[in-house]
Amino acid sequence: MPCGVISPRATARSNNTPNGGFDSTLEELYFAVAAAAIRRGYHCLTFAGPGQGDALREQGLPFRPDWERVVTPMVDYALTRPEVDAARVALMGWSYGGYFAPRAAAFEPRIAALIAWDGLYDLLEPGLATVPPEARSEMARALAANPHALDAPLREMMRADLGIRWALTNGMYTFGVGSPGEYVAKLRDYNLQGVAEHITCPTLVCEAEQDHFFRGQPEQLFAALTCPKTFMRFTTEEGAEEHCHAGAHALFHERAFRLARRSVRMNRPPVIACRRYVGAEAVSRPSARAVSRSATPDTSTTVTSAAAITAGAVLPSASSTPTFAPRTRPAPRRSRRA
Question: Which of 96, 252, 324, 334 has the lowest CB atom count within 10 Å?
């Protein structure tokens, strides 16, 4: 898989493995969060998995629901690097990655901390929510029996709405199918029912108040988690209400990394500690469910969101340790008058 590594000048030990989403590329992740992570001293490892960037366009790999088979090789590689602390590897999922990263963390015990930016529980449900309630059962039967029966009405919707046309066209491409009905049917395999409960690492679930794609999904993921967890809502008043807080990434960075600094000094508690953030407010409370941690080693963890990019890079060898230092801006020249 295409991969990039970027490190700060300081000898930090925390490593962040970010996971993009529905239309992600390596390049965009740098501007979204990597630069902010590097300024705070984190090593970053980013990758394009199946359905994303070069892995899709050059290798022809479509999305797959068992994302742990994608993340585990990345963790294997990260732990070969001398600058990485094996007890402080965090995984971040952006947009569609809000499903992929939690799915991987449920089956990859070496993930010490998880951030869902924003949380996703069921990829099919937001689409079904746009269908009139009386037609949902009929649509579900059609998906199970013959997904192509939905092609005609879905193509009609594509002709009428540019946003729907893009979503279904990109879905067919990234999921490797030939019709919109097949794409929608594929989404049935992408949910965290019976999976989220297996996540054990501290988890941050973010929500955008006016998310037009996945409204309500972060709450479902948060409710299903039985691990130490934090819910962080970004609001309209803050200018951070859009999908994944578009236009307010600096606010997201500040809050997420502040929580990371606290979490790196936090051992896993014997009961599940829950926090709900609403805007700048945080309310701490213990959950009703206590989970024994006697069989789980007590390790320091880092909850953070970070990503990195070396455009067009391939997976570096374990022996190489590239460091990308920020450029220093030269002093401005004084103009001379004749």
Answer: 334
